[in-house]
Amino acid sequence: MIYDIYHDESKEESYWHGFLFVPRKNRDYLLSLLSEARKNTNYFSQVHYQKIKRKAKSNHETVIITKSWTTIGVSSLQQQKLIKFPLKVYLGRNPKKRTEPPYYRILDQLIRCKFMVFKERDKHRKMFFTDDNLKNIEITFKMALKGSLHRLFNNNDPVTIGNIFIDGDEQYIGEYGRNLNTDEIIGRLRLERRDFVYFLNKSTIIPQKSNHQELINGQNAEDSYFLQLCDILIGGVRFHSYCPDTNITRYRISEPCRDLLKHDQDNIARMKESRYFNGFLLNEAWLEDNEWKFGQLNAGNFNNSEQLILNFQIDDL
Question: Which pTM was predicted?
Answer without folding.
Answer: 0.91
